[in-house]
Amino acid sequence: VELTVAQSALFSADGSNLSGPPYSGPRIKPLLDGINSPNDMKSLDISELKQLAHEIRWDVLENVSKTGGHLSSSLGVVELTVALHYVFDMPEDDIIWDVSHQCYPHKMLTGRRSQFPTLRQQGGISGFCKRKESVYDSFGAGHSTTSISAAQGMSVAKSMLNKRKNNNIAVIGDGAITGGMAYEAMNSAGYLKNRMIVVLNDNGQVSLPTGTQSAGGVIPASQLSAYTSNLLVSKPFQDFRDFAKNFNKILPENIQDVNKRIDEYARGIVSGGTLFEELGFYYVGPLDGHDLDNMVPILEKLRDSDSNKPVLLHIKTNKGQGYPPAEAASDKMHGVGKFDLGTGVQFKSKGGQPSLTSIFANALIDQATEDRTVVGITAAMPGGTGMDIFGRRFPKRTFDVGIAEQHAVTFAAGMACEGLKPFCCIYSTFLQRGYDQVIHDVAVQNLPVRFMLDRAGLVGNDGPTHHGCYDLAYMGAIPNLTIMSPSDEIELKNMVTTCALHDDGPTVLRYPRGTGYGPKILQELFGYDLENGAIPAKGTALPIGKGRIVRVPGGINLAKYGASSQLSRLNRGRERKDRVAILSFGTRLHEALVAANEVEESDPTIGVTVADARFMKPLDIDLVRELVDENCALITIEEGSIGGFGSHVLQFLSLDGALDNGQLKFRPMVLPDVYFEAATQAEQYEEAGLNSRHIKGTVLRMMERIEIPVLQDL
Question: Right CATH number for 356-510 from 3.10.310.40, 3.40.50.970, 3.30.160.390, 1.10.260.40?
Answer without folding.
Answer: 3.40.50.970
